[in-house]
Amino acid sequence: MTILPGETPKKLGLVIDLDICVGCHACAVNCKEWNTGGHMAPLTDLQPYGAKQQGVWFNRIHAFEAQRTDGKPNQTVHFPKSCLHCQDAACVTVCPTGASFKRSADGIVLVDESKCIGCKLCSWACPYGAREFDADAGVMKKCTLCIDRIYNEHIPERERVPACVSTCPAGARHFGDLGDPNSDVSKLVADRGGYDLMPEMNYKPTNKYLPPRPRRAEAAPGGPKDLNAEPGPENPILRWVDKVLSR
Ligand code: SF4
Ligand code: SF4
């Protein structure tokens, strides 16, 4: 069992806008490119061009077709998912060797590969499927929030954000300190009803999702009730995504 540091004052994390994400996968590709040579390198691919390819990807984009029951067209939701750097991360507490740990300085959850025995307990404990086992190296890997970018004094300051944030062409990804109520990301979450994924699990994820906005015609006064009109956990789209992910 590995001990968590408790509530960290600084909570670095991502805010992902589901209203804006178009599912282009640029974030996933740039994540793969950066981290293939980064802190947890390599991000192994096995049989990349074969029928049974396997690869380590820290960031994966799911696309869901949300069915409407009111006769309106179905709605596609693109849902990027990576480690949410939870405050109460069971992936850390189940780790028998101390390989999985959460940093007290910034709340980032990491794996020390030199201590990992590849038992996969952490991936079973993670309700979000955010752990990535490297079958070639025999160790667990995961999103580091690009610690080798965000603190890297050898790159321009404006580029010291995770690779996924730096590359998103739609501006759907934001990075910052969610422990500071005055940070830009915290204000964005407050303004838009930012949401914890599967809050009933009590892992207290740091990353937040911004729900899709009401479509213009349906948001008009007197218009039909919109699937997206309720922000936060009451939002049916997000409730539905929770349901799909928890299967
Ligand atoms: Fe651990 Fe999963 Fe939470 Fe990441 S999302 S901190 S891997 S439980
Ligand atoms: Fe810890 Fe590695 Fe086992 Fe995960 S696979 S619980 S990081 S030893």
Account of the 3D structure:
The chain is α+β, with helices and mostly antiparallel strands and 247 residues long. It has one domain: 2-Layer Sandwich (Alpha-Beta Plaits). Helix content is 21%, strand content 18%. About 3% of the residues have low confidence. Bound molecules: iron/sulfur cluster (2 copies). One iron/sulfur cluster (SF4) binds next to helix 2.
Label this structure with key terms.
two-stranded antiparallel ribbon, Alpha-Beta Plaits, alpha+beta, binds iron/sulfur cluster, 247 residues, single chain
CATH architecture term:
2-Layer Sandwich
Mean pLDDT: 89
Bound molecules: iron/sulfur cluster
CATH-derived topology: Alpha-Beta Plaits
Q: Class in CATH?
A: Alpha Beta
